[in-house]
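protien #1 (seq + structre)
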Amino acid sequence: MSWKLTLRAGPKVERVKADSLDEALDALELHARATANTERRAAVDVHLRRYEPADQVALRVELRGPGVAAGIDVRGDGSVAAWTGRVRRRELKPADGESPYEALRNSVQSTSVEP
């Protein structure tokens, strides 16, 4: 089975394929952590609205596979949020002591149809 990662950073889009779910989740975490440790953005004023760094998505990594649509957003302030859903994204709330990466991994592994 093939797993697909789509990395979006501004106008740049990169696609990565993985043979297994674990390989895809490891690649997702590697890319997201690298960006979270280096990416910082300033606030942006557009007309009458101000977008703070925490409101901006610096990198979105989408994971697609059999029965799974999920991903990680790295915000402009370096914070990370996990989510699931194709059309409507539902943010995953990590349990106590759990990282967003672990929350995503647990959620995806419980819904995957991979043998």
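ok now protien #2
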Amino acid sequence: MTQHSERYGYHHKQLRRKWKLRVERGDVDCARCGKPVFPFQAWDLDHKPGGGPYEYLGVSHAKCNRATLTHAREEANRRWSRDW
């Protein structure tokens, strides 16, 4: 599995900076639900399902992106960090 620092390093930050300008103008629709991403909404630079660390789907509402199965699994693994 790719480390967090690799997935969200320089390349990711540069792409996010470019997308931010479009989001602030209101020119972006969510790659997951298709609804507009407004400047006041939390958003993610979403990865393609099953893609590599540098393969992006586009901008998604944070809620839409984090509702995916991959994020649900990651969250479940974080909650149970110890074997009891």
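Residues 10-25 form the longest helix (16 residues).
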